[in-house]
Amino acid sequence: MAPKLSHLLSAILVIFSIQSFRGQARTLKPEHRQSFSSFLQGLEGIQKGQTVEGLIELKQYLKKLGYYRSDDITLTSSDFDDHLELALKTYQEYFHLNVTGNLDSSTIQQMMIPRCGMPDIINTPSTKPNSTTSKHNKFHMVVHYAFGTQKWPPSKYALTYRFGSGVQVVGSDTLRSVCSKAFRTWAKVSPFTFQEATAGASADIVIEFFSGDHGDHYPFDGPGNKLAHAFYPQDGRLHYDADENWSIDPAVDQFDLESVTVHEIGHLLGLYHSKDHPEAIICGNCLGSVELSEFDDKKRSCHRRLFYQNAR
Ligand SMILES: *[C@@H]1O[C@H](CO)[C@@H](O)[C@H](O)[C@H]1NC(C)=O
Ligand SMILES: *[C@@H]1O[C@H](CO)[C@@H](O)[C@H](O)[C@H]1NC(C)=O
Ligand SMILES: *[C@@H]1O[C@H](CO)[C@@H](O)[C@H](O)[C@H]1NC(C)=O
Ligand SMILES: [Zn+2]
Ligand SMILES: [Zn+2]
Questions:
Q1: In 3-state terms, what secondary structure has residue 90?
Q2: N or C: which end of the chain has fewer CB within 10 A?
């Protein structure tokens, strides 16, 4: 049945600690948004069998998001190999693109869209690590508004939060008011309640901004691409990329702090990215575009139902 919580937790931690992105922030400087986009554009049309410098970063990108079926594939070369082709096909299927396994234009365009840093696909640990036939069992594509097996127990439905001492990006009153609204949004559709912890007290959820590598194996990457991430229960860390241009009233080149916060709280509560609900607040790359007004009654009831199923 469902893997033990401890297994899944360690799987998530192991998967993402195997390939640390330590070098990436340095390699892709200084204007990361432009570099990463032009880096991706430079890869367009590369064929299987070719060896091209930079492919290893693409592999790391795909692996971090869960598109490699096995966490024991080591990414040491810049060859366009079978594993990369398979990872690309999985990516294309996830985003409803033509499943070509090629670095075609629509795939590159999709990768250029800013997104959440959490994976789209959760690789669950294999009970038979040496068996090739078990590879498919290891690979679990998250197809719905998925709940992981990591949950808060009902005794922990009254969650507290506090703001950490990371990089100061947004005024503390602004951040406090944005987060308070975002938590209220979730409180309406879930059995959870949220309260800011009293000063100096510990809290279940800690919210802060960081720049680049900040020690949790999910380094940020300068402007664009990865905007934020938040860990599954009962971790409680929510991090924003301090290098984004955040706003509470976003212009075209800015990101809306509240929408992103609502999305990330979903992860804190145990939600994974959803493949087949691109309109959902919890899809992987809808962070910059989802309007809170789209968080309508239909989706509220969907969330509510899920939480009640989860609570049983
Ligand atoms: C998929 O391929 C078809 C036929 O080549 C093409 O018309 C269509 O635009 C492609 N779709 C995407 C999303 O690239
Ligand atoms: C996997 O490991 C088991 C027990 O450790 C062994 O019996 C089996 O032959 C191994 N299978 C392969 C494919 O190596
Ligand atoms: C952030 O966006 C605003 C509005 O578009 C712009 O005026 C400002 O220069 C941007 N700041 C940075 C650091 O890019
Ligand atoms: Zn996310
Ligand atoms: Zn982080």
A1: helix
A2: N
CB 264 within 8 A of CB 209: no
Residue pair 232/249 in contact by the 8 Å Cβ criterion: no
DSSP H or E segment with residue 138: helix 135-138
Tokens of 152: 């808060």
Four-residue CA torsion sign, 242, 204, 124, 128 = positive
**Which residues sit opposite 210 in a β-bridge?**
241
The span from the CA of 40 to the CA of 86, in Å, is 18
Atom number, ligand 3, closest to the C-alpha of residue 223? 14
Span 168-217, pLDDT tens digits: 999 999 999 999 999 998 898 888 999 999 998 999 999 999 999 999 98
Q: What is the mean pLDDT of residues 244-268?
A: 88
For a ligand 1 pocket test, name from 91, 98, 102, 106 the mutation site with the most ligand atoms within 8 angstroms of its C-beta: 98
Predicted structure pTM score: 0.72
Residue 6, Cβ density class (10 Å: 0-12 exposed, 13-18 middle, ≥19 buried): exposed
CB atoms within 10 A of CB 190: 23
Atom index in ligand 1 nearest the CA of residue 97 equals 13
The pair of structure tokens assigned to 114 is 């800013």
